[in-house]
Design a protein that fits this description.
381 residues, alpha/beta, Rossmann fold, 7-stranded parallel β-sheet, globular
Length: 381
């Protein structure tokens, strides 16, 4: 198939999933065309069958806010016509599904069919879409999509509740390449990789996010501060965003800044996650929790909050541990307890990897997308 994919190219779960999906589809012989305002950050440009089309946005002085959604719709239609695309797959409802709808209508006027699939990722529904300013058009775009998927049952049910939508929504979970996201071969290799980062031979707690308020990165620092009072350890934070400055100041004010390492945005997180002993994910809300899955595949248990789609991913007490939002003391104690019980830690590490391989490997999930495309196109598999 020839598939057009549109996503936000920035550091966030929806862009990561869309990019990885495109790469996996291309590896299976499909032709994938990314259409966005900049190249997705995980797209390295060296994958056969993957093409990138940048959306030009006018800076005409009359426009206080450049109309990206209109420029995107126009470019979607153009790329679809020039490269004979079979369908569009848009990630994150606003504004991508609206733009895809316009592109479909533009080509329909020429007698050409261009169906589109919308994948819902989380804040496009729970934050943006639920805003009264966007709710009617978000609902309309979802209802007009030729197919709609959701990354978790939680998000599927929330979408139906928020928007009173009766149409079918297929849950197709996020996934991970289990060959790329994998534990290091042995402790010697792990120690060597840690030393390369300048980290001492101490337990490593890790956090990866876009540092937005919903991720509660300040809670990560507070949890680590409690752990560091009782156990020599290191905290590695990957990513960047609005709450980074506050987290850095807190680390300094608590006197733990020498043990806290802000690495900024990193492309090769698959090489960093296996270095961690525990992943911290104390989010206010997660519709799925992709980073927790990536950690699981690397044999890293996650200590997270019992919110959104996380209970669908993490088996509490088996592959990770779940707590109430803001319960810093309990999460810190859980880290200490886990690090102090090597047998329990090893059991949880093995269970995490086993569950990732059983349910969430790309080899299992990507074919579900292909079958869904075929269903939308009216093809037999």
């Amino acid at each position: 198939m020839r598939i057009g994919i549109t996503c936000y190219p920035t550091y966030g779960g929806s862009g990561v999933v869309a990019t990885e999906l495109g790469i996996e589809l291309a590896n299976r012989g499909h032709q994938v065309h990314f259409i966005s305002y900049s190249q997705p950050f995980r797209l390295n440009g060296r994958d056969d069958g993957v093409f990138y089309h940048e959306v030009p946005v006018s800076s005409y002085p009359l426009f206080e806010f450049p109309p990206y959604d209109l420029a995107l719709a126009s470019h979607m239609a153009e790329v679809a016509e020039l490269y004979d695309l079979d369908l569009l797959h848009v990630h994150y409802a606003i504004p991508h599904s609206v733009s895809a709808l316009l592109a479909r209508q533009m080509l329909a006027a020429k007698g050409r069919r261009l169906p589109f699939v919308t994948t819902l990722h989380g804040t496009d529904i729970t934050l943006v879409g639920a805003d009264r300013s966007y709710l009617p058009i978000t609902r309309y775009a979802i209802e007009q999509s030729d197919g709609v998927t959701s990354i978790s049952n939680y998000l599927r049910d929330t979408t139906r509740e928020y928007f009173a939508i009766a149409r079918p929504i297929e849950t197709i979970t996020n996934f991970v390449n289990c060959d790329v996201y994998a534990p290091l071969s042995d402790e010697a290799a792990r120690a060597k990789a840690r030393a390369h980062l300048g980290l001492p031979d101490e337990p490593i707690l890790m956090h990866l996010s876009n540092f937005r308020p919903v991720k509660r990165v300040v809670d990560v620092v507070k949890i680590f501060a409690r752990v560091a009072q009782q156990l020599p350890a290191q905290l590695v934070l990957i990513g960047d965003g609005p709450d980074r400055s506050e987290a850095e100041w807190l680390a300094h004010s608590l006197g733990i800044h020498a043990r806290v390492h802000f690495l900024g945005k990193q492309e090769r997180v698959s090489e960093l996650l296996p270095l961690a002993d525990v992943l911290l994910l104390p989010s206010q809300l997660e519709s799925f929790g992709l980073v927790a899955l990536e950690a699981m595949a690397c044999k890293v248990p996650t200590i997270a909050t019992r919110v959104g789609g996380l209970p669908e991913l993490i088996d509490d007490g088996v592959t990770g541990l779940l707590f109430e939002v803001g319960d810093i003391a309990a999460m810190a104690q859980a880290v200490l307890s886990l690090l102090g019980d090597r047998e329990r830690m090893n059991a949880m590490r093995e269970a995490a990897r086993r569950e990732a391989k059983r349910r969430f490997c790309a080899t299992l999930v990507v074919p579900r997308y292909v079958r869904y495309y075929e269903q939308v196109l009216g093809r037999s598999s």
